[in-house]
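User: For this week's homework, look closely at the record that follows, marking any run of repeated tokens, and judge whether sequence predicts the tokens.
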Amino acid sequence: MANMPVQIDWSELYSDLMSDRETKRGIAAARLLERDIRLNGWLVGRVFADRPELAKRYGLGRRTLVEAVRLLEDRGIARMRRGPGGGLIVLEVCRSRSLKLLNEHFVAAGTTVAHIREARLVIRIIADYLRLHRRGPAALEVFNGYFTRGLATTRREDPLANIVAAGAIQDPAPPGDPIIDFLNDSLDRFSRLVALTDAPAASDEMNIRVPANRPKTSLASLVAKRIVEEIRNGDSHDLQRLGTEAEIGERMGVSRQVVRQAVRILESQGTVESRRGRTHGISVTDPESTVAAEAVVALLSSMRIDEANVRAACSAMGRLTRILVAAKAGPEHFKEYERLVDCGHTWGGINMFSQWVRLDWEIIDNPILRIFAQALTGCQVRLSNDVCAVPMEGMPGVQRGLADHIEAAKKGDLLLADRLHDELTMLVRAAFHPA
């Protein structure tokens, strides 16, 4: 057993990164279907599979399949068409809906002008990295050269601005890259919203352009919206009990089955939590970034962006995340990183990785960058093999590398911390293989 490799199940990792709550079967099935729609080329207007084939291929019971389809329909990813030649029809993902959801999350998360400024610097650096990445290794050396010069001129004071200055990076980034264009578009729209009002309401700023093939709103989606309205209009707080499925159904005049499907929609968004038992029922939870992040993942996936471009953007985002973490982390954060490294002998792969990434996002403390990092990581995970493994004999080297990286970050040596993590990344990539 000591030589068993660390297993990475990418579909499980995706769910773990999107939400730290229990993933119900319907939600997991919807995410699996969306992933395979992406891997199949996101063929808009085509039948992905009919109902019997979906049940057989994925081993889904009737209730789970109905819940999964409702979730896909609610998110505008696919719809079930009845009759001859029917089945699960792939839809064009609504760009303006994704932008609206981002705006709503940024408002709810208390996004500030300082957050916007920091996010713009990150986008400029990623845009320049992607531009030079397309030109080849020699051009990337130019990027690495000014990146390290920018880190060498500072310790913990505004490293992003120093990197931008060292590279004389353009502002704004030139259009043409689909990932950068979307990120810039989302920031531009939110910036206009912030400029228009002291207390922005994201839903008032944008009219959603709904694609012609978007299905009519289901009864479950309407009930989900009514539940959200109840939460917003009531005295909601953590774990506020909304009632059981039967109580909600009676209050709204719909069946328990419709309520159950509505609850799955809201659970997938991180709005409510359903627990079994006579005294439990449906409860309000802390708002999550899940719905906005998954909307961005779906949109970028539907755009069929080149896999190399996704991986390059995710790599650049990861590198900048580490720089921000090293600049912002306090002693208590470094202790938590050290604890994760010390527990390396018990690593199960997914749990340790997701804990580490979530700690990164907590330290960055920027709702915009968290969503961007969450979405780009989600896109990359979607493109990965079903299961990969890292041999356990390589883990001591990984632990030493992580410990050295943390020590450099604690000392405020951003340049050394960046170099050590880059070496560690190459070591881990060389060890990965399909399981």
